[in-house]
């Protein structure tokens, strides 16, 4: 590693990579990006975020209270285990081009139906109360996926509100797919 | 919580996700009540209005404990770990904890969701076996490789961890879908060692309140 900086293997458009980029930005951790053109299957990025949380605890991405932590993890797992893997590149390849859009939309609406309901009990300004947490890092990239797959977000006012609030924060902007070293020129902000 | 104050686990005997949590409860000697949710009968009891109000994800497991209801097996297990820390299911060292979570996430995010009931329904009966086998072999190829660096007696070193709770139910799924385990000697060895432990036995699908008579141990 050059100068001991962490190295992130990242794909500009991968929602999984974006979650980790947000965490690194929030914690002001300087890192190097090695762009990869493969999209890895979802889910393992939460292990990275929890490691960052335990070794660089400021600012916190998980609340202190165990019950609130459970809600944060539940929401994060819902997205990273329940939605994203079902609409990732390798699965979409398997279902065939003519089925891809319907398949992805189904995965997302199914998950968002549940998430919108859960947020009724957990959300404040953000997914869980009023502090940015790991759940929020999962939410924004998943909403971006929803938009890419033309999912109607009208049935999800809470998800939409929280997404909008988060996108105004700097960490969510600097980490955005349109601002990465490997963002193609036509998609660059 | 029940009148007696015991936690309530909503579980299906055969659900690998439910099994993970049952193992955790057994390891931590937490006494609980089971409310079985049959994922197949009546069009799937997880779709009932009653259950959906309790767990909007319409999935098992869900655990009612300490006045809250938690869904998602790893979120449940991490809550149990933080509130009932003995015995530990995550090592102390942050790097080892990262390995445990990485392996757990690989299974719970990278394999199981791709071969669960609702996805298999969507791919259609004639494609189900191939689809499930592909999801599992893909994931097990990666896992066998990772275990070369992390495994001791168990998935990460020599203590049972959350990763092991995810491994055993996933191997059972692999067997159900007739996946050849020969390419995965480390996974097989660890699975065998774990199945000898009491917590993995009492929580086994063949010993649950809702296990059908013909499958009962």
From TrEMBL, chain A:
Its EC number is 5.2.1.2. Keywords: Phenylalanine catabolism, Tyrosine catabolism. InterPro entries: Glutathione-S-Trfase_C-like, Glutathione-S-Trfase_C_sf, Glutathione_S-Trfase_N, GST_C, GST_Zeta, GST_Zeta_C, Thioredoxin-like_sf. GO terms for molecular function: glutathione transferase activity; maleylacetoacetate isomerase activity. Pathway: Amino-acid degradation; L-phenylalanine degradation; acetoacetate and fumarate from L-phenylalanine: step 5/6. It catalyses: 4-maleylacetoacetate = 4-fumarylacetoacetate. Pfam families: GST_C_3. Residues 65-185 form the GST C-terminal domain. It comes from the Eukaryota. GO terms for biological process: glutathione metabolic process; L-phenylalanine catabolic process; L-tyrosine catabolic process. Gene3D superfamilies: 1.20.1050.10, Glutaredoxin. Residues 4-136 form the GST N-terminal domain. GO terms for cellular component: mitochondrion. Its cofactor is glutathione. The keyword Plastid does not apply. Transmembrane segments: none annotated. Belongs to the GST superfamily. Zeta family. This is maleylacetoacetate isomerase. It comes from Suricata suricatta.
Automatic annotation (TrEMBL), chain B:
Its EC number is 2.5.1.18, 5.2.1.2. Its cofactor is glutathione. GO terms for cellular component: mitochondrion. GO terms for molecular function: glutathione transferase activity; maleylacetoacetate isomerase activity. Residues 5-88 form the GST N-terminal domain. The keyword Isomerase applies. Keywords: Cytoplasm, Isomerase, Phenylalanine catabolism, Transferase, Tyrosine catabolism. InterPro entries: Glutathione-S-Trfase_C-like (IPR010987), Glutathione-S-Trfase_C_sf (IPR036282), Glutathione_S-Trfase (IPR040079), Glutathione_S-Trfase_N (IPR004045), GST_C (IPR004046), GST_Zeta (IPR005955), GST_Zeta_C (IPR034330), GST_Zeta_N (IPR034333). Residues 93-213 form the GST C-terminal domain. Gene3D superfamilies: 1.20.1050.10, Glutaredoxin. It is found in: Cytoplasm. The keyword Ion transport does not apply. One of its GO terms (biological process) is L-phenylalanine catabolic process. NCBIfam families: maiA. This is Maleylacetoacetate isomerase.
